[in-house]
Design brief:
The protein is mainly β.
Length: about 700
């Protein structure tokens, strides 16, 4: 990461050629690495400068911006390269450009230029604006993803205890191929999951009965042997990753614990969209930072949408990672309460007793918002699901008046067989949005449903064990601004919706800070994105990478007016990136009319996508929803010609090994032969080339 680089001049702002001994020995910067490099435009350290931020700026110690000519091009000026245009029409040289004062060779250089030659040689180069927000893992619930990071076989609250494989059905807990190890750390366990929490690994499950994909009936490979047909698979052979899913934990948390929509301490939604639904807050929290950061607002982190939807009780496990959670760890009471309260213990009680929060409220204590949560179902004292006569679980919701955000609601049971528009949890304006079911008594019916008057969908029948129904979320990458109706069947998507004009879902470069954009003065030598036969790598436009939304605020999806990003220097592509290898397009270029499958069975086809889009989520006229590039103003920096070759530039000059056998002469533009060629006219008397070249 390169930052704090608005001025690369050494020591102070005297900018003297004689600062070093010998004079002129002060050089610029060369960064060479085989890793990706990020360059941030930081606030200008020169007080009073007319440019607010950038990297390695051409400016005097007094803050005056300088270019090759005194008639300086403004940041937002389009180049007019006509004979009298603002580019070629300039003729008065700027004496302070690319020089240092007290240089006897340049007596007219007064204050000089604080710019220095800068070269970055890297796997890839990404440019960041002045206000890029570096995030924390907690912004996007990154520590709560269902990654198999051990198993808590010992009942205490950590994963550091050694366990004996012989005490757990002689399981190969650490997956090293040897059974009988006596000292296996819990954090190293990858095989063996106590699904029902009874303290052993002897209970069995049938693979054909387990299915996490709502559109298939193929079972699930519990023991990792490559098929889904095994019967009576013991817990000692169940992989930890599968055990997490049996407890309702996907391999991603979808940011259901972090409070990303109301961070300023006042009630309400900080950054609502046009429908009043939450977007990631762009306001500062009490710590003086915003969660609209690199870990949350990148349109890659999947975030579960919050809309007006029924409010359900959530239970919390105060352990990280989530693989350390045991069935008895899922509670709703405050931390330290003994005995802890389960959700089923609070049926009929006020919602304000739920320290774990609800699908519309975060955990009451901010320190609890770093822990995993899940929707609560009715359970017995052994933490096993209580199934009704139809073999269905009973979710717990909040009974009350729709739209109220106070603590007047109470915890209530909402059985599937009695769920209806008048017997459902109250609607809340920022509740987590889940897929619902059309027929709660027939789980072979996998037809899509997303309405508020229907119960929650889960893809398979359940047993009266400690396992958790696998609920299906609706993410921002599937439906960005739409909201559910009472009985929606298809996934609601607004045709032509685009993330570029929305606030919060991405970081916007320089809002209200630097309308002239950013300036980066350097030579970039790096790799580009590796292409594939069906995936374009973005070409020259994607050679320098961008992470933020560089679109101007406002406008419509079809408008492409970007914030300027000026690179003055040189761009050199010398390889394919070896580290920064993610595909530029995450889909086939020929997919506009193809169904793009979703891991949740949404099957989004071309009727659901915006006009011209080939992605599985709506994009503006086919443009990538996660790549909103600036108005690119790229050009060569003639200041480089005034400097002696550095170690990098010297590699481009090879001494002649002998007398040359070929001769070249650069012919000037006013040569009579060249003038005749460039000023030739067609049979209608029009210039065959154009007036740009036909001049002396």
């Amino acid at each position: 990461m390169l930052r704090n680089g608005t001025v690369l001049a050494r020591k102070d702002e005297s900018n003297s050629f004689k600062l070093t001994d010998p004079p002129g020995a002060e050089k610029g910067l060369i960064l060479a690495t085989n890793l990706p490099v990020y360059i941030k435009a930081d606030p200008n350290v020169i007080a009073g400068s007319k440019i607010q931020s950038g990297f390695n700026l051409h400016q005097t110690p007094g803050g005056k911006l300088v270019e090759e000519f005194k008639d300086r091009l403004l940041q937002n000026d389009e180049w007019d390269d006509g004979e009298n245009g603002n580019f070629y029409g300039r003729d008065t040289l700027e004496e302070n450009f690319a020089c240092r004062k007290e240089d006897d060779r340049l007596p007219n250089c007064n204050s000089g230029d604080l710019w220095r030659p800068a070269v970055v040689i890297a796997d890839s180069v990404t440019l960041l604006s002045n206000n890029f927000e570096f995030g924390y893992r907690s912004d996007g619930d990154y520590d709560l993803r269902g990654i198999p990071m051990g198993s808590n076989l010992d009942p205490d609250d950590d994963l550091i205890d050694p366990v004996n494989e012989a005490n757990f059905n002689n399981a190969d807990l650490n997956g090293n191929g040897v059974r009988g190890d006596t000292q296996v750390l819990e954090s190293q366990i990858v095989i063996g999951y106590d699904v029902n929490g009874d303290g052993d690994l002897t209970d069995t499950f049938n693979e054909p009965d387990i299915n996490f994909n709502p559109d298939t009936n193929q079972g699930f490979d519990l023991n990792g042997d490559g098929d889904t047909t095994d019967i009576s698979v013991p817990e000692s052979e169940i992989h930890v990753a599968v055990g997490l899913k049996l407890n309702g934990i996907f391999d991603n948390n979808f940011v259901t614990s972090a409070n990303w929509w109301d961070v300023d301490g006042t009630p309400g939604i900080d950054t609502p969209d046009a429908n009043g639904n939450p977007q990631p807050s762009t306001l500062q929290n009490p710590n003086g930072r915003t969660v609209n950061s690199s870990y949350l607002s990148n349109f890659v982190t999947p975030i579960q949408r919050r809309v007006e939807f029924p409010e359900y009780v959530m239970e919390i496990c105060r352990k990280v990672p989530v693989s350390a959670c045991r069935p008895e760890d899922w509670v709703v009471s405050a931390q330290g309460v003994n005995p802890p309260q389960r959700a089923s213990d609070l049926v009929g009680n006020n919602v304000n007793l739920l320290f774990s929060g609800t699908t519309a409220k975060p955990a009451i204590e901010p320190k609890d918002r770093r822990y995993p949560r899940r929707i609560a179902f009715k359970r017995d004292t052994g933490n096993k699901l209580e199934l009704d006569s139809d073999n269905l679980p009973t979710p717990l919701g909040i009974n009350g008046t729709d739209g109220t955000v106070d603590n007047s609601g109470t915890v209530a049971e909402y059985p599937y067989n009695t769920f209806n528009p008048t017997n459902r949890p109250r609607l809340q304006p920022h509740a987590l949005w889940y897929r619902t079911t059309r027929d709660p008594l027939d789980f072979t019916n996998t037809a899509l449903s997303f309405g508020t008057d229907r119960p929650l969908f889960f893809p398979r029948p359940l047993n009266p064990t400690t396992e958790q129904p696998m609920l299906v979320p609706v993410l921002q990458v599937h439906s960005l601004t739409a909201e559910p109706g009472r009985r929606n069947n298809g996934l609601p998507i607004r045709e032509g919706e685009c993330v570029e004009i929305q606030e919060g879902w991405t970081q916007r470069a320089n809002p209200n800070q630097n309308p002239d954009g950013e300036t980066f003065n350097l030579v970039i030598a790096s790799g580009d994105s590796p292409p594939s036969p069906t995936e374009n790598n973005g070409g020259v436009a994607n050679f320098v990478r961008y992470l933020e939304n560089w679109r101007q605020p406002g406008g419509s999806c079809r408008e492409t007016d970007g914030i300027p990003a000026r690179i003055s220097g040189s761009l050199i592509q010398f390889k394919r990136s070896a580290y920064d290898t993610a595909p530029f397009w995450h889909g086939s270029q020929n997919a506009p009319n193809e169904i793009v499958p979703s891991r949740f069975g949404y099957q989004i086809d071309d009727d659901d996508r915006g006009n011209g889009s080939f992605m599985p989520y709506a994009a503006a006229s086919g443009r990538l929803p996660y790549y909103m590039a600036p108005k690119r103003r790229y050009g060569f920096d003639v200041a480089l010609l005034t400097q002696l070759p550095d170690l990098f530039s010297g590699l481009f000059t090879t001494p002649s090994a002998g007398d040359p056998d070929e001769f070249f002469r650069e012919v000037s533009r006013d040569d009579s032969w060249v003038e005749t060629l460039l000023c030739a006219k067609d049979d209608k008397g029009n210039l065959a080339v154009n007036g740009r070249y036909c001049r002396k």
